[in-house]
Amino acid sequence: MSNFNVIPLKTTGGFTRMDNKLIEALMVVDLPGRELKVALFVARATIGYQVAETRIQATEIAKATNVHPDVASKAISHLLKRRILYRIGGSRGDIGISDPSEWVYFDQPKQCPTQTISSDSDQKGRVVSITSQTKSDDSLLYTKKNPLLTLSSKEINPPPAESPAVVEGKPARKPPFGMVQMLADNPHQIPDQLLVDWLALRKTKRAAVSQTVWGSLNAELSKCVELGITASDAMTEALAAGWQGFKVSWIVNRLTLSDRPPTIASAGPDFYSQAWRTDMSDEL
Prior knowledge:
Layout: H1 20-28, H2 33-46, E1 53-54, H3 58-65, H4 69-81, E2 85-88, E3 94-97, E4 115-118, E5 126-129, H5 153-156, H6 179-184, H7 192-204, H8 211-226, H9 231-241, H10 248-257, H11 274-283
Antiparallel strand pairs: 1-3, 2-3, 4-5
Helix pairs in contact: 2-4, 3-4, 7-9
């Protein structure tokens, strides 16, 4: 067999090692030139520095690729929709390159559902859209993680329920249950912030909050208090574990595994102890 001469790389400013699968995908995917340049820049900024994702501003991409910042922002949005890029968190989160198996390789043009043909005397008929254009929802761009969730003031403090008009044949709507009702019936004096966090957690899990759910939670909190666990500590542990609801045994097991076993509060004097009987005989 003949020996092949291996030419070593000259000393340069460094190089980016890119997976063959990614290079082949970039050659196949149908992208405009400016979007391909943006994708290459993101690959350089992440793979080149051996990180999965990083914070990238449109001005940085514009300077490196010689495009306008607005053009760079639109290219990023389109690449996110095509799942070529992904973002961690909100609209200003870190950006990374998705696995090529998740890419949308060919962009599907939007079709107008309703069109009419208008004819001119000197020209062929032209297509005229009669539907009003709507803005695309860029807030639902592809992301690897769930976006940050915040509750609106209406969800935290729902407006007081007005007496609904009784419609014949339809049951009356139940009044909404939220923060106001929880604070009005808060036997364990749980702090407001813990209640807000608990409502936000249940919303992410699409779990409704009702009077029944709130009553069941307070029943478990009462059992925790009997074991020497405060209601605030129990709620904090449940939120840290990501539980939308819990049983007292879950809290006890979690505290035991973390070497923080609960101290069972004494319900009264031990009538069988020698010390108690001695004290009583002295008094007599």
